[in-house]
Design goal:
The protein is an alpha+beta fold and about 130 residues long. It is about 50% helix and about 15% strand. A hairpin with a 2-residue loop joins strand 2 and strand 3.
Amino acid sequence: MMDRKKGVYLFAVEVIALMVLVVFYFVNQSTGKVPRSARQYSEQNSTSIGGETIAQEELTKHNSDTDCWISYWGKVYDVTSWLPKHPGGAKAITPYCGTSSEFENAFTGQHGTSKVELLDQVGTYKGELSN
């Protein structure tokens, strides 16, 4: 009887350890840099809309809740009209208005790549960010 309890206990520990490893794997996958597939999505969908080349200095000027441009993978979007609709509130985005890498880091840190398509839908594509 005691050996059976030990066997069940060891099995439970192995299952829990496996679950922890799976969760750890997926958490690490959703943080960090945007995978190539998300970058390709952004490139394919945004460039077909049109737009112009936008200098970093121009992007930086649009840094308020009444005029909010962000850049994601080199694509510049006006997200001003989305701010009041954002489920996390406008305050989650406004610190990143007028930014590029800061917005990318915050966006992927919060959403991974799960909201790339939504960003393309709710933002007004303005053009390509120049280097």
